[in-house]
Amino acid sequence: MAGRGSDVRPIVRLRSTAGTGFTYVTRKNRRHDPDRLVLRKFDPVVRRHVDFREER
């Protein structure tokens, strides 16, 4: 059962909505979050918290 984790928890890139091009890389649970992920995280380029949206 350990080998099946890749299809349930894929690696996704979160890109800043501030237009700086800064990204975070994380994993998400596809069963609990089937839609695109949006998290509020720190963007060091603009030095403030902004929304980061999942890109595919």
Automatic annotation (TrEMBL):
Listed PROSITE patterns: RIBOSOMAL_L33
Pfam families membership: Ribosomal_L33
Keyword annotations: Ribonucleoprotein, Ribosomal protein
Recorded GO CC terms: ribosome
The UniProt record lists the keyword Transmembrane helix: no
Signal peptide: none
Keyword Membrane belongs to the record: no
Family per similarity comment: Belongs to the bacterial ribosomal protein bL33 family.
HAMAP family: Ribosomal_bL33
Descriptive protein name: Large ribosomal subunit protein bL33
Originating species: Nocardioides lentus
Gene of this entry: rpmG_1
